[in-house]
Amino acid sequence: MPKISSDTLWEQAAAEVHRREAEGGGEDGGETVSERTVFLMGSKAGGKTSILLRCLDRDEPSKPTLALEYTFGRRARGHNTPKDIAHLWELGGGTSLSDLVQIPITPVSIRSLSVILILDLSKPNGLWVTMEKLLQATQAQLEKVSSQAQQAQKAKPGAKHHMPVRSAARVLPKDYPDRELISPFPVPLLIIGSKYDTFQEFDSDKRKVVSKTLRFVAHYYAASLIFTSIKTESLMSKTKSFFSHLAFGLDRGKSVSCDSSKSLIVPAGYDSFSQIGSPPTTDVDITTLHAKNPKDLWKKVYERVFPQENTSEQRELKDPAKDPQYSEPQIDAMRAQKDQELDQYKRDAAKSWKGLELET
Q1: Which residue stretches does the UniProt record annotate as biased composition, category Basic and acidic residues (predicted)?
Q2: What is the rounded distance in angstroms from the CA atom of residue 159 to the CA atom of residue 151?
Q3: pTM above 0.85, yes or no
Q4: Are 45 and 120 in contact (CB under 8 A)?
Q5: How many CB atoms lie within 10 A of CB 207?
Q6: What CATH number labels 35-153+166-279?
Q7: Which end of the chain has the lower number of beta carbons within 10 A, N or C?
Q8: Which residue has the higher pLDDT, 208 or 156?
């Protein structure tokens, strides 16, 4: 009986493409098409879709993301050349649907995967908890998939067309700032602070806390950081350069800005802990915080300035059908009616069973 492969059709197709690339660039010997995957996640209603559409030059209205949505972008390298493809996944619902990271992060996609975390600067009281939960969920899935891929490769040592496996540990250049003190994210990571137009109206001390904290987090994960607003063309142009760098391998530009009084633009490797300095603690005594490590210290200082919102509401909205942003009045009314009918049926059924028990 022939052995049935457990690989999906997508994984088998990707393996075949890489086998042909290794043998000489495809059947016709021409230039091969590059395929990359970019996974976007972040604050609920934080402007993820709007930013993505602008980066893709799509002039269409943005709609709330339903759970997890897929689209793609294409870009030609030159005249009469194949178009490179970017597979784009967007996670909706903030942190409530973080379990869905397992769909875009697979043994196939991990080889060319980048992650974009979009945080709503206008809502700093939900920023740290959103960032922490999404990065933890994504990193756990990356490590799981990387481990599975390595085990599968060891199980078939004689296979001729293995795909290269990306390690869960990202290797940085030897001269990378603070190389021994940071914990690089397993794949390239871009942190985007959205709604900068609202954020710049904040008190300067509060802006400084948010800016320095995100600089610390970005440097700790060896990530790039940029603040943007869809209402400011110059900021969106720079954001698009960072996006295109991840999606198509284009140059991300040379702009750098670490001034907390302006929009931050900090490419990975352009910052350091010495430049960032210590957490802004005008009203906080660091010695009373009992932090376990530097990241925990920054978290505790940040949460003293911006107490994080209770996540119990997010847990209650785990079902997207109960989320107000997806409301459909007619459908919701019918659903409520059916729920009432179901409850009544359950009560009637319970009475019937009690009656049968009494008779016996």
Answers
A1: 312-322, 335-346
A2: 13
A3: no
A4: yes
A5: 19
A6: 3.40.50.300
A7: N
A8: 208
